[in-house]
Amino acid sequence: METLTPGSAAELVDLLRAASADGRRLLPVGGRTHLDRGNPTVVDAEVSVGRLSRVLSYDPAELVATVEAGMTCGELDAILAEHDQEWPVDADPAATIGGVVASGASSARRLRVGPVRDWILGIELATGEGRLIRGGAHTIKNVSGYDLPRLMVGSLGTLGVLTSLDLRLRPRPLARRTVIASGTVRQAAAVVAAVPLACGVLATPDSIEVRLEGWPEDVEVESRAVARLLGGTFVLDDVAFPSRQPWLDVAVTVEAAVVPSALVELTRLVSAPWGVLAGVGILWAGIASAGRPLDELRAAVSAFGGVAPVICGPGGLGQGGPRRGSGAWAIQERIKAAFDPVGIMAPGRFWDGS
Amino acid sequence: MIAAARRDLEEILGSGAVLSDPLALRLYGRDASMLEGSCELVAIPSNREQVVACVRIARRRGLAVVPRGAGTGLAGGSTPLPGSLVIVTTRLQRILEIRPEDRLAWVEPGVLNLDLKRRLAPLGLTFAPDPASEASSTIGGNVATNAGGPHCLAYGVTANHIFAVELVLADGTVQSFGGEGPEAGGYDLRGVIIGSEGTVGVITAVCVRLTALPEAVQVLMLGFATVDDAAGVVSEVIAAGLTPAAIELMDRAIVRVVEDFAHAGYPVDAEAVVLIELDGLQGGVDRQRQAVEQIARSHGATVIQAASDPAHRARLWKGRKSAHGAITRIAPDFLQYDVVVPRTRLVEALAAVRVVARDEGLIIAHIVHAGDGNLHPLIMYDRRSPGALEHVLAAGERIVRACLEMGGSISGEHGIGLEKRDFMPLMFSAADLDLNDDVRAAFDPVRTMNPGKILSDVGRSHGPAAGHAAGAAPDEAGSWRR
Ligand SMILES: Cc1cc2nc3c(=O)[nH]c(=O)nc-3n(C[C@H](O)[C@H](O)[C@H](O)COP(=O)(O)OP(=O)(O)OC[C@H]3O[C@@H](n4cnc5c(N)ncnc54)[C@H](O)[C@@H]3O)c2cc1C
After folding, report:
1. Does A328 reach chain B within 8 Å, measured CB to CB?
2. Is ligand 1 within 6 A of the CB of residue B70?
3. CA atoms within 13 A on the CB side of A28
4. Which residue among A24, A53, A309, B15 is buried most deeply as judged by most CB within 10 Å?
5. Would residue B265 be called left, alpha or beta, if left means φ above 0 and alpha means ψ between -120 and 50 degrees?
């Protein structure tokens, strides 16, 4: 399939206007690392913002960076690391900033750092119709107009193409440690309650991984607290978190989102490999195929009021979002129409196949 | 028509919950801003079903709806324009459930911010947003304005603490947005609703995220001989990678009045006082305290003092949080402004405000959420003196423009409402504003929800607000209280 690679926001706008006029369907792509998120879409061409990949401004003392949407997470991370800062989203280094935001992928450390939507201050977007618009601001605080940056999170390329983003940054913690022990999902929840420094508590069928970050003296204290709670532990400094993600090595990976208290029961229903983020309510499960096991998992998750999109492999998003025909659904339809009146942006890709 | 609307409302709510006497209408004709408007009727429902009924009656009778919480808003968001029914949500005041294991609580919109915090504290939990008005503002109002506060530096604004919102839409239907889990399906419309200032519907329930209270807390009070020294310290603390929970700056004028009021031991001869709160575990708090003290010393701090105990800490915060109230002792009237600059440009921003004050012949005092670059210049005046208000408004506009030139924003937390509505084009292009308007219209195609707020209705393509039927001009903006 043809991939269009505009070299500027203005070129992108022209391209979108023309596509809207001709009804030419487009899928925005970045690093192609998160394309499995979303339902299947049939398009006439892809639009890559790979050529829009510069840092537009970065003032370390401000803890804010404005970057073009095609910059990769790896590149950004390297630039920020020089100043001991980070954009705490932890996506694949090949993923682009625009792609990560559009797919709504958050850090495994979100227990403490929060979801990706909390780390975007402003956006520039070319809508499907070809309007170049800004939302948000460059400043840490801002309440002018509707929060369009948040609306972009998880919009899966169905509203337009992000061209640049203002990112909120944070100091990179001085100490980063993973404490590993054996234990249950219930014990993992107890760690969340008792160890305030934990920014991630991952339970898997055979271990609990507790991520501790912060000032070195605090990390020491909290390592001992984890050891007291869980017994025999061993410690790894400066490793990735999670240290292993075996659920990504299976044909289909689901990322379910539920209330944290539902995790114990849900993990009884899935077979290995799986991992849960205690206190957050994320369950990653690797399953062999997108057939019955996926349907069953989704039924269980939706009984708890959650959603269970596939993030790797086939299977799409599953149920979620406003019920078709409801008032909230009508709002969603009107929002879509405001950005992309002709419906050229990734048709079918969004929740409920719209 | 209005009489008919009143009869309809009284039938549902009982006569005690429908106000139409001139005094009540005047009382509800404004919020805590300097803007005055007027309304036809005020309804005070007690539950969601009654809110639905009110919204339906307003629609049937051609009235616009102005949702209102405690009325502490500072941007005119709940100042009604002619032709409207004010729906007050303070009687929806139940805390519906608290679920510590899921770190969430469901509350009705009329619950006061501080009342929720008090219920949560024994569980070791809190609702992080802490506007200075926390004792009197409602959660519904906090959500509708995306309220901030001193501790938003570390904990984030209201938007970071909301899982789900239930809304009564303009057509009287009830819809829920978001969910109890960390992610939900569909577009994230919560973001649009939070900070929408009553323009997309009436909030009838909120699912808030709960945060664990920190183990250790330390407040440092720093005094400086110049405001610039103080602002310089703030920028350096942020740049040094320290992560205080809050950094607040007050200038001498403010410090003097609040000291009289709070007896917190502020240095009244300092030109500026900075409060820095550090929280977390004891080790990190101690380490950061040393680092802050060192930065303060190198910037010539004249006072460096740590709160001696929780009571002292509470007094220091009490002083800060009562600043607005206390200021009335020195000025009969004041306009409290809310603007933002990049936090590295605080010194410059404060200098720009000084120039404006001098040019306009006004006294402007400062309270600053300094860690976020969020300035609250308090422009003092006496409304009885002729022409004073004009100078105040001119000063406000010049401050806004100066902050925008520095790459700032026209509002950090109080919102746009009526007060800043006509400044929106200074920050956004016509295309941006049109899209904002489309987003709003997605919720309320007929524009009956708080029309004229945030965005001007003039020249919009979606048809006039219902309120206009009752005689309001299309771009009514309220009037400044004289
Ligand atoms: C002394 C003082 C200090 C303050 N300090 C701060 C501060 O530190 N940080 C800060 O952010 N703000 C501050 N404010 C401003 C104000 O308190 C906040 O904006 C607060 O969130 C408003 O809450 P409220 O219940 O009073 O809402 P109101 O003033 O009644 O309404 C505010 C807006 O919200 C809408 N609204 C209210 N309730 C609902 C509802 N149920 N459904 C839909 N829309 C609704 C209204 O239409 C209006 O647009 C301060 C105000 C004062 C007077």
Report:
1. yes
2. yes
3. 33
4. A309
5. left
Q: Tell me whether residue B382 is exposed, middle or buried, using C-beta atoms within 10 angstroms of its C-beta: 0 to 12, 13 to 18, 19 or more.
A: exposed
Tell me: do B283 and B381 sit in the same domain: no
Query: What's the CA gap between B383 and B471, in Å, rounded?
Result: 29
CB within 8 Å: A143 and B374: no
Contact assessment for residue A45 and residue A26, using Cβ atoms and an 8 Å cutoff: yes
Verify whether ligand 1 is closer than 6 Å to residue B80 (CB atom): no
Of the residues B88, B121, B138, which one is the last residue of a structural domain? Answer: B88
Q: Please give the span between the terminal C-alpha atoms of chain B, in angstroms, as a whole number.
A: 31
Please determine, for residue B465, whether its predicted confidence score (pLDDT) is greater than 60: no
Q: Is the pLDDT of residue B468 over 50?
A: no
Give B34 Cα–ligand 1 centroid separation in angstroms: 14
Q: Which atom of ligand 1 is nearest to the CA of B204?
A: 41
SS3 content of chain A, % helix, strand, coil (to 5): 30, 25, 40
CATH number of the domain where residue B227 is located? 3.30.70.3450
Are both B311 and B394 inside the same structural domain?
A: no
**Sequence-ordered list of residues with C-beta below 8 angstroms from that of B480, at least 6 positions apart, any chain:** B34, B35, B36, B389, B393
SS3 A205: coil
Contact between residue B347 and residue B278 where contact means Cβ atoms under 8 Å apart: no
Residues B279 and B344 placed together within one structural domain of the fold: no
Q: Which positions ≥6 away from A213 have C-beta within 8 Å?
A: A109, A112, A173, A175, A176, A177, A197, A199, A219
- Protein residue closest via CA to atom 16 of ligand 1: B73
Instruction: Decide if pLDDT at B472 tops 60.
Output: no
Contact B280 A351 (CB under 8 A): no
Say how far apart CA B398 and CA B357 lie, in whole Å: 10
Q: Are residues B300 and B358 in the same domain?
A: no
CATH number at residue B71: 3.30.43.10
Number of independent structural domains in chain B: 4
Tokens matching residue B315? 């007094």
B367, β-bridge pairs? B250, B376
The residue segments making up the domain with residue B275 are: 216-324
Say which CATH number the domain at B173 has: 3.30.465.10
Residues B318 and B368 in one domain: no
Question: Which pair of tokens denotes residue A214?
Answer: 């912060």
Beta pairing, strands B162-168 & B202-209 = antiparallel
Ligand 1 atom closest to the Cα of residue B201 is 43
- Condensed to tens digits (0 to 9), the pLDDT of residues B11-21 reads 999 999 999 99
Q: What is the mean pLDDT of chain A?
A: 96
Is residue B189 included in any domain, yes or no? yes
Do residue B72 and residue B21 come from a single domain? yes
- Looking at residue B459, its pLDDT comes to 61
Ligand 1 centroid to Cα of residue B481, in Å, is 19
**Mean local confidence (pLDDT), B235-253:** 94
**Structural domain contains residue B457:** no
- Residue B338 included in any domain: yes
User: Would B467 be classed as within a structural domain?
Assistant: no
CB-CB under 8 Å, A217 with B283: yes
* Same domain as B317, residue B222: yes
Q: Which of residues 171-200 of A touch B (CB under 8 A)?
A: 171-172, 189, 196-197
